[in-house]
Input
Amino acid sequence: MDFTWIIILISLAITILAQIFVSSTYSKYKKVGAKKGMTGFEVAKQILSRHGLDDIYVVETRGTLTDHFDPRRKTIRLSTEVFHGTSLASVAVAAHEVGHALQYKDGYKFLLVRNAIIPLVNFSSQAGYFAILISFIFGLTDLLWVGIGLEFIILLFQLLTLPVEFNASNRAKKELEKEGILNRNELNGVSSMLGAAAMTYVASVLTAILEIARLILIARDND
Output
């Protein structure tokens, strides 16, 4: 088997395993109720209020694990299950999104740098795709190298995302403990839940590195 196909299979396996891991962990902890019985909405509002962020809205949104913080509209959007849920999974996800809001409040450097390059990343994502596609169609190796260079910009964005996500999770756990929302055993469950979610970002970095390696092998073979 061609080595480039082996890389594709490894990348696919990493992605699938990461998704299975986070889905199974989420399914496990959404069945475990938090003893205080606070909903994700209530958890988010309590932590935000403690930090004087009462101007940030917490609203319900559709989907599963579609939770995110929108800094432009000062809004935390929680999926229906998280918004109304009282499980450890709901509490963990809600607190994590508040963690991102706290990063904006504190001017967390990795977040600021990551967001600053988003326009460049969006351009690189589109331009890189077309450069690689055209290079394959017409056998233009020089254009393939351009595409590979643009892929490195996307990889940089994904690398910057890692500390942002891990930091948001650490903030979430500290706030849940500080506010007395969860006890020690419950915090262990939250750590497992947030750790599993973080693995999806690690998987994205690994697959991006493997994809770049695959393209470099192809470019070298064509030189």
Q: What stands out?
A: Residues 3-222 form one domain. Helices lie at 3-29, 40-50, 80-84, 88-106, 109-116, 118-138, 141-178, 184-222. The chain has a mean pLDDT of 96. The longest strand covers residues 57-61.
